[in-house]
Amino acid sequence: MQPTTLILGLGNVLMTDEAVGAEVVRQLEQESDPDAPLVFIDGGTLSFTLALPIGDCPRLIVVDAAAMGEPPGSVRVFEGEAMDRQLSVNAKTVHEVSLSDLMDIARLTDTLPLKRALIGIEPGFVGWGDRLTPAVEAAIPDAIARIRSLLDRWSA
């Protein structure tokens, strides 16, 4: 079965809460039906090479640490144009390329997923370390539940 939804986790696994996107995607992949039309990618700290898998799926869910000015571990869903606005407001990145850049590539090549969402998780600390802070680790089940909710709604 051709994958219809790309679930992309972003972040640096050596930078404490910056790793939350990768961890959410890892756990969700372990819990998911292997026959589901999903593709899971740990996108690390982003690269232009992610433009191809983004353009290959009509649906995209990105999971990333996002500074939203909320308490650590807060989870928010930005869907469709709300995702686009969030990325345009918070386009700063320490990565090689930003998620906003990848979305622009998809727009220019007419491959922007029609259904798209950003699951943002407020970090508590971003610095050297290989473990999530307790508040961010505790947010993982909520983030997974929100992804499942999106998938259910998009499949209806």
TrEMBL record:
Keyword Protease assigned: yes
GO terms of biological process kind: protein processing
Gene Ontology MF annotations: aspartic-type endopeptidase activity; enzyme activator activity
Coiled coil: none
Keywords: Aspartyl protease, Hydrolase, Protease
Pfam families, alphabetized: HycI (PF01750)
Similarity-based family: Belongs to the peptidase A31 family.
PANTHER family linked to this entry: HYDROGENASE 1 MATURATION PROTEASE, HYDROGENASE 2 MATURATION PROTEASE
Protein name: Hydrogenase maturation protease
Organism from which the protein derives: Thiocapsa roseopersicina
Lineage of origin: Bacteria, Pseudomonadati, Pseudomonadota, Gammaproteobacteria, Chromatiales
